[in-house]
Amino acid sequence: MTAIRTVLLGVFALLLAQCTGLSAPSEEVRCPYPTIANESCQKVCVGTCVESFLRSDGVRCYECLSEEKPPCPINAVLHCSDCPGSTTCAPLSDFCFSCEPVVEHGPTCVSGTVAGKGSCESQCGSQGGVCLDENNDGCFECTVINCPNGTYKNECPSSCSNGCDIAAQQSGVICYQCKQSCEDFCASVGLQPAQDYGSYILGELNKYSCVSGAGISVQSASRGDCKCLSVPEINVDTTKPICKATSCGDVPCGQSASCPGGENTTITVTCNWGGWEQIDEFKFRPVLGQ
Question: How far is the C-alpha of 199 from the C-alpha of 9, rounded, in Å?
C-alpha cells in the first residue's frame, strides 16, 4: 500500500511539473512600456502600430499611435472648403489648414510713382497734392498744383465780400479769386472791357486804297459775363490788287485799259477801288469794281 502511494505521488508530481513548468518570458513582456510586440499590437491597438525599435534578439517592438487628431491652431480650419472666397487655402498639417488672404500684386512702377491710388494718397495728402495716373497703368504720381498769385486754392475766403469766381482749375484743384468789377478785371490783365471796334477798324483801313487786304489781331480774356479786348492791331498788305480777266485783260487797281471792241469801237476798262467790306467782327476785305 505504501509502495502504490509512493508511485502515485511520483506520477502526480511529474504531471504537476509538466503542467506548471515555467516557459521563457514572452516577447510582449520583454518589450518595454509603452511598446509591445507586433502581433499583440495589431490585436489591441485602436490606431496605427508603428515600429519603435528592434531589440538585440531580433524582436521588433511597436508603439500604438492613437487616431485621435490633436486640435488645430486658432483660426485654422479642418477643410479648405471652410475658407472664405477671398482667401486661399494653405496646409498646416495633414488635417489642419490656414485661410490666407489673397495678395494682389500690383504693377511694377517706375521711380517717383506708386502702385494704387490709395498708397499714393496716403503719402500725397500731407503735401497738398493730387494723385494722377498719367499713363493709365495703375501707377500714380503725387502732383502738387499751385494756384496763381492772387487766387486761393480750393476755397473762397470770407474776405471776398462779393464772393469768388473760378480763375483756373486742373485735376480736381480749383483756384478761386475774389469777384471784381469787369473794369477792374480787364485792367488786371492789361485789357479794356469789350466794345464794338468795327468803326475804329474801318476808319483805320480807309486810310488805304488799292491794297490787297489787312490782318487784324486782338487779345481777349473773359471771366463770367465779363469780356475784355485789346485795341485791335491792323497790318495792311499794300500789294496792289488786279482786276483779272476783263475785256481788256488784267487791269491793276486804280488804272484803266483800252482795247478794240469791234469795227470802229474802243472798249475802256477801269479797275476801281470800292473800299472795304466787313465779313466778321474782325475781318474786312477789299472791294474792286469795273
Answer: 164
DSSP secondary structure of 87-133: EEEEESSSS-EEEEEP------PPTT-EESHHHHHHHHGGGT-EEE-
Confidence at residue 67, expressed as pLDDT on a 0 to 100 scale: 63
Same domain, 203 and 127: no
Note whether residue 2 is domain-resident.
Answer: no
Is 122 within the bounds of a domain?
Answer: yes
In a domain, 60, yes or no: no
Q: Which residues contact 287 (CB under 8 A, 6 or more apart)?
A: 273, 274, 275, 276, 277
Integer CA distances (angstroms), 194 to 164, 231, 279, in order: 22, 9, 19
- Assign 16 to helix, strand or coil: helix
Please give the C-alpha separations between residue 129 and each of 45, 145, 169, 170, 261, in angstroms, as whole numbers. 72, 6, 14, 12, 82
Q: How many domains does the chain have?
A: 2
Q: In which residue are the cell numbers 489787312 written?
A: 214
Q: Of 15, 58, 19, 18, nearest to 37 (Cα)? A: 58
Cα distance between residue 147 and residue 168, in whole Å = 8
Q: Does some domain include residue 123?
A: yes
What does the block give as the cell for 182? Answer: 469787369
Residues in the chain with pLDDT < 50? 1-28
Shared domain for 140 and 203, answered yes or no, is no
For residue 50 the three cell numbers come to 508603428
Residue 285 lies in domain: 195-289
Terminal C-alpha separation, the chain: 187
